[in-house]
Amino acid sequence: MAFKALDPLLHSQLRLAVMSLLISVESADFVYIKEQTGATAGNLSVQIDKLSNAEYITVTKGYEGKKPKTTCKVTSKGVDAFEAYVKTLQQYIKP
């Protein structure tokens, strides 16, 4: 039996953590994602850019008062990719 390849974009630990988090909420701001994943700001920023470029998430930059605020939200393409990743992973796990 041939296994389907895992999505390399989601196979990264941090990108998978970001997607798992965003799947369960309507949206999340950068600070919350950083706290939940334990990632550094620089690394998280790079990984969010990769997910955004793949159209798995949307990124909205704005301000809350005078403080900059970046909010991320999973797209329908991202949901489909995440569900396909999980389904493929389950095929690897089940004998």
Write up what this structure looks like.
The chain has a single domain (13-93), classed as Arc Repressor Mutant, subunit A (Orthogonal Bundle). Strands 1-3-2 form a three-stranded antiparallel β-sheet. The chain is 53% helix and 19% strand. The chain has four helices and three strands; from the N terminus they run H-E-H-H-E-E-H. It is elongated, with a radius of gyration of 14 Å. It is an alpha+beta fold.
Q: State the distance separating the first and last CA atoms.
A: 11 Å
Determine the mean pLDDT.
94
Rounded Rg: 14 Å
User: Number of folding domains?
Assistant: 1
Helix/sheet category: alpha+beta
Largest sheet: 3 strands, antiparallel
Low-confidence stretches: none
Helix and strand sequence: HEHHEEH
Strand residues, percent: 15-25%
Main sheet: strand order: 1-3-2
CATH architecture: Orthogonal Bundle
- Please state the overall shape, judged from the principal axes of the Cα atoms: elongated
Q: Got a strand count?
A: 3
Keywords for this structure?
single chain, 95 residues, alpha+beta, 3 strands, elongated
